[in-house]
Amino acid sequence: MNINRILALNIPDIHPAYGGVRGKTMSSRSLGYAWPVIKDVGVHTIIDLRNDGMNQRMQNLCEKYGMEYFYYPVDNRADVVESMVSLFPDFCERIDRGGFYIACAMGLHRTDIALSTYWVFYGADKGKEPPTLQGYLKESGHGTSKILRVLNAFYDKLTERDGKEPMPIEEFKRRKQVINEQSKRNNKK
Question: SS3 letters for 105-122?
Answer without folding.
Answer: CCCCHHHHHHHHHHHHHC
